[in-house]
Design brief:
By secondary structure, this protein is mainly beta. Helix content is 7%, strand content 34%. It has 1 helix and 8 strands; from the N terminus they run αββββββββ. The structure holds zinc ion.
Amino acid sequence: MYHHSGNVAQRTAGSPTGVLEPQAPDTEAVFYQRCTWCGTAMYHRVLCPVCRGSELRTERSEGTGTVRHATVVHRNSPAARNVSLIEMTEGFVLRGRVMGPLIGIHSGDRVRLSTAKDPVRGEPVFQLVDEPYRAWT
Ligand SMILES: [Zn+2]
């Protein structure tokens, strides 16, 4: 079998079909809401932004996504840090930090969840799936 993208193999190997694992600590997974009416995925909402439905069920993300917007924040921090909007494979967008060199993070980069809750800020931390430098050398 030939795969056009390594992403396909990685996704099938990575997550056990979304089955909840009671043993796994919550800090290692991102949970999101999906509207039971229209199927829209969202993050930390109480109403569906599309149909205003309130019947949402919580699902566990497989933890992979794409950088939609990356910014560097200097304010309230001793060192510049990256804050990115990540569009997850399931279709919702959340804000988090991507590890790595600040200049090496761009829109369109594929990332996967490293830590669901940063011990300092409580925000999700991602790591790049593709090594930005190795890919070009
Ligand atoms: Zn909806």
